[in-house]
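2024-03-11 09:14:02 DEBUG pipeline.ingest accepted 1 chain
2024-03-11 09:14:02 DEBUG pipeline.ingest length=122
2024-03-11 09:14:03 DEBUG pipeline.predict start
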Amino acid sequence: MLAAAIDDLPVIGPSPDDRHEGPAHPHPITQRHVEIQHENGLIGLLNDAMSARNGARMRELVHEYRRTHPGDPNHLQDGYEIIANCLDAPGEASRAAADGYYAEHRASTVRRFVRRICLEGG
């Protein structure tokens, strides 16, 4: 039996008896899949803005990230916001926030960027 995907394309099952004609998905595309893809897209845009050293754009994207993905177990939103602050307002306050983030969130994928941009001035 074919399940409906989010964009109304059929989902092809694993059996050789399943029809493999026309456009289809190899597995159901759930709302969670769409949310993950959106979050990954935001992270990509944040990384682009960070590479361009555009703190204002990073802040806009962090705001969107917080609005659309309020649960942030990896604290990426905080890290990106700290980096935006380091870019736009370098100084004692942004450095202290970066020090705290760097010390507390040891497994964060944003941690190395906090170190390079905020703590090493890269």
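2024-03-11 09:14:41 DEBUG pipeline.report DSSP finds five helices and no strands in the chain.
2024-03-11 09:14:41 DEBUG pipeline.predict end
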